[in-house]
Amino acid sequence: MSDSAQSLWPQAGYAQLKKDARGHLTVTDDFLRVLLLRPELAPIESSCKHEIQIHERLLENPRLDLQAADLAQIQDRDAADNMAVWLRFRNRILAHATLEASYWALFEGQGVDVPPILVNQITQVLVQHVLGDDCTPLEARAAELLFRAQKISVLDDGSVMAADHETVERHALESGFGSVGELLKQGGIPLRTVDLDVIQDSNEDSYWERSERFDMVAPVTCCKTSVANRFIWPWPWTHKIFSKSNRKTYC
After folding, report:
1. How confident is the model over 99-112, as pLDDT tens digits?
2. CB–CB of 71/93 below 8 Å?
């Protein structure tokens, strides 16, 4: 990618993938390690020694074959369930020679049997691959529609704007003082609105350094993005993200 585009979504793991002779992506151990470092899997302060040991063994050998008896030793059942889900997902993306083939196989048969949050990460790296070396900030932001849930707004002039759903909700919570803000809103007291930058010519270069903040609004109707033709139609929609308080879980 260009020098600026090299900073695009670094935590997604695209840099840890390899290309085969046809230019398709292949899964590496380092990419599997990126997935293992997700917050749903990374040990926390209260993790038992068995959970920590299993996680360390997998980091050393991400293709390690673990049995149900290994996971049964983990005290936190959420952690054990998350690990079981990850192992199933790992096997699914290793079942074919390329990541592209494994991705499409996820949607065959009885349907997707792995959490959308993981499917979204694979979608993200495949989209980054499609974007190529010379994508513009506006194209990269438009591509977020394929792996991040969006809040869509139609302005008075008919313009359609897309803002990252999770970012909007987080800003609204911070600006609205949480549950207290909800009570104030019910009482008719206005709260501060969420103010995010709209990506445009004057600020688009700042997108690269903030790409993983997902805090820029995309003008979906802008013809320069070619959103529908280039990205949306070829890709399945997998936008729901599941999480729980304290320890994040896959479902």
Report:
1. 999 999 998 877 78
2. no
* Cα separation, 52 vs 42, whole angstroms: 9
Strands 197-198, 216-219: pairing is parallel
Q: Check if the beta carbon of residue 52 is closer than 8 Å to that of residue 43.
A: yes
Distances (CA, A) of 231 to 22, 42, 128, 237: 21, 32, 11, 11
Q: φ and ψ at 76, to 5 degrees?
A: -80, 110
Cα pseudo-dihedral 62, 64, 68, 74, rounded to 10? -50
Residue 156 pLDDT: 87
Q: Strand pairing partners for 164?
A: 150
CA–CA separation, 17 vs 69, rounded Å? 31
